[in-house]
Amino acid sequence: MMAANTVPLLPRLVSSSVAIANHAGKIIRDVLNKGDLQIVQKEHVKDLQTEADRAAQRCIIGSLTKHFPGLIIIGEEEESSGPVQLTEQSSVVPLKFTCPPHLAKLSQEQIVVWVDPLDGTSEFTEATAAAAHKCLMGNHDTGCGAHSTSLLDHVTVLIGIAVDGKTVAGIIHQPYFNYKNKEKELGRTIYGIIGSAGENDGVVGGLLVKPPPTGCVVATTRSHASSTVNDAVSSCDPTEVLRVGGAGHKVLLLLDGSAHAYVFASPGCKKWDTCAPQAVLEAAGGALTDIKGDHILYHRHVQHRNSEGVLATAPGQDHAAYIRKIPAHVKENLVK
Ligand SMILES: Nc1ncnc2c1ncn2[C@@H]1O[C@H](COP(=O)(O)O)[C@@H](O)[C@H]1OP(=O)(O)O
Ligand SMILES: [Mg+2]
């Protein structure tokens, strides 16, 4: 076995982040099980923060800082007071693949980590009604309140790693994956490094990448729709539209064979929403850009908002063809 300090920085960071994201997912479940989310409204009525967002972020930023002192980390939530549950230094997860050669000699100063401790907060808060009615027993849904608890699938923990402004690696943890099936392990973590060797399931850990069905299934927002969002979706001539929450969740739908494209022609999504999902998707051969087809950059001082929207396509799809379909008035409406 190689000594820890001979393993390049990037795989060490990804491996720790997988363990940290798992831990954050457990913290999220614990907060929901206690039933008191302590919801705070941020910029507007559909921009909420809960104690699960705060506690998960304290865990992620505290643990990353402990293991990688001086690392630049940008989290969605402002600093909050409260208990900080850290992961152990030894909590690392063996990765399924090796570091691409061009990323093997990074210095920490080149890296910015973008953290969304709980993506899909709107859906998470709606799911609490069922929890408050004691429908969640031992983290598993009993069937009561199925409508709102199904939204728990939309919740993810996102840790994205950017190098010199480009996303290179990402971790998407889904804390409630399998929550309807008591026989199976609760939660899953998907991770990828762009350019790692291997084919499909070899380049994305934690998920078997599948092609989408015939037709054109477009995933879009459930809680932040607008006429521009709807015009962009319609322009793709979808055979089916999935209105679901979370950027991480929608990218997982592109990877697990559920959808062809994720279309969000609105400025509400931020860099911490897209950094990790983009890396995981692109590691598998998909693409994520803004709605005009331009690359999204993740430098330390970049504006947080993805003001020109998001368009992502599953591996094997013609990304440029989707970009061409987006109407000019939608593109013109989204400016830096
Ligand atoms: N108008 C908005 N205000 C705040 N956050 C937004 C907005 N639109 C999108 N987001 C963020 O982008 C994610 C994907 O959007 P959507 O679910 O609407 O497709 C949301 O889960 C939310 O992240 P978060 O839940 O972490 O606040
Ligand atoms: Mg988010």
From TrEMBL:
It catalyses: 3'-phosphoadenylyl sulfate + H2O = adenosine 5'-phosphosulfate + phosphate; adenosine 2',5'-bisphosphate + H2O = AMP + phosphate; 1D-myo-inositol 1,4-bisphosphate + H2O = 1D-myo-inositol 4-phosphate + phosphate; 1D-myo-inositol 1,3,4-trisphosphate + H2O = 1D-myo-inositol 3,4-bisphosphate + phosphate. The keyword Metal-binding applies. GO terms for biological process: phosphatidylinositol phosphate biosynthetic process. Keywords: Hydrolase, Lithium, Magnesium, Metal-binding. It holds the Pfam family Inositol_P. Belongs to the inositol monophosphatase superfamily. This is 3'(2'),5'-bisphosphate nucleotidase 1. The keyword Iron does not apply. It comes from Hirondellea gigas. Its EC number is 3.1.3.57, 3.1.3.7. Its cofactor is Mg(2+). One of its GO terms (molecular function) is inositol-1,4-bisphosphate 1-phosphatase activity. It comes from the Eukaryota. PANTHER family: 3'(2'),5'-BISPHOSPHATE NUCLEOTIDASE 1 (PTHR43028:SF5). Mg(2+) binds at E76, D116, L118, D119, D273. SUPFAM superfamilies: Carbohydrate phosphatase. InterPro entries: CysQ/Inositol_MonoPase, Inositol_monoP_metal-BS, Inositol_monophosphatase-like, Inositol_monophosphatase_CS.
